[in-house]
Amino acid sequence: MIEVTSDLLCTKLKKRAPDTHKGDFGRLTIVAGSRGMVGAPMMATLAAMRTGSGLTTLAAPASVVSCVAVGLMEAMTLPLCETEQGGLDASCMETLLPHLQKQTACVVGCGLGVTNDTKQIIKNIIENTKCKLLLDADALNAIAGTPELLQSCAQTPVVTPHPGEMARLCGIEISAVLSNPAKLARTFAQTYGCVTVLKGHRTVIAAPDGTLFHNTTGNAGLAKGGSGDILSGMIGAFLAQGLSAVDAAVCAVWIHGAAADRLSEHMALTGMLARDVIDELPAVMKALDL
Ligand SMILES: NC(=O)C1=CN([C@@H]2O[C@H](COP(=O)(O)OP(=O)(O)OC[C@H]3O[C@@H](n4cnc5c(N)ncnc54)[C@H](OP(=O)(O)O)[C@@H]3O)[C@@H](O)[C@H]2O)[C@@H](O)CC1
Ligand SMILES: Nc1ncnc2c1ncn2[C@@H]1O[C@H](COP(=O)(O)OP(=O)(O)O)[C@@H](O)[C@H]1O
Predict the structure, then answer these.
(1) How high is the pLDDT of residue 253?
(2) Where on this chain does (6S)-NADPHX bind (predicted)?
(3) Which domains does the chain show, CATH number per domain?
């Protein structure tokens, strides 16, 4: 098992060249949100922009976009048709699919809810888009009975389950996930050809070739709603910037935890918020000389 360190990150991340432009840092779309879960898309989008995504678009139910757009000045938005319950309507694919064909990477699932419509949408995205994909939260719940769908992705996808989501994906109890997370993550990655980020106090990252990484940054200040949404946006940003699926996951997981560790130097873990972690990301990257 490889321990993720700042030295390892320095071999994977490059400082920006002075003559660079936004097109060099990729186009990322975040498909997220539903009535009652408007924070998740916002946090994922802000974290992606703080992690260097060139052009970031939030694709969400139209009413969610109306709520959050004012707080996402630097992002573009793609308002999508929604059901009466305020989740995405399957007919939104007429707008979303052509949009995704132009994108480098797509993060899907944060706060999306699980309905028949979202299940159809996730299957459609997996089977019909060519960009790099990260599936989190309700995108994972949507494929819980059919994880083999991951093998239809055009490029190696990243999945970011917490133990509850991993248990649903694998059809096992949470206790079974917790009994040997590294072994389970590796088997899942190898079986379905995806980079598997199994989150927890000490997150493990497994690559489809069986390589395993172990992260030691992060603390209990992250044990709050929103922390996982941030991580998804960060991995998406690194995917958009051209990192491989495994490198994007390794770098984002370490930086995410390191931001919480930096905050813990002057803030009680009890009071740490996801938004504090997002704001701390540039300081962590500065310390890495990025
Ligand atoms: N502001 C917003 O808009 C926010 C929106 N959000 C959105 O909410 C949606 C639902 O996501 P969710 O994770 O809250 O519910 P769900 O998938 O049922 O998981 C709970 C189950 O998993 C278990 N479990 C979890 N971690 C574990 C661990 N480390 N170790 C062990 N067990 C663990 C947990 O166990 P228990 O707590 O019962 O012990 C329980 O059984 C999703 O779309 C998300 O994006 C959130 O991001 C919050 C902010
Ligand atoms: N005690 C902890 N120590 C270190 N990291 C933690 C701890 N608790 C949570 N995290 C991290 O916070 C994130 C939580 O993700 P998740 O459970 O998906 O949250 P949410 O869906 O509420 O955003 C993961 O990256 C996890 O590794």
Answers:
(1) 98
(2) 40, 111, 162, 229
(3) 2-14+23-285 (3.40.1190.20)
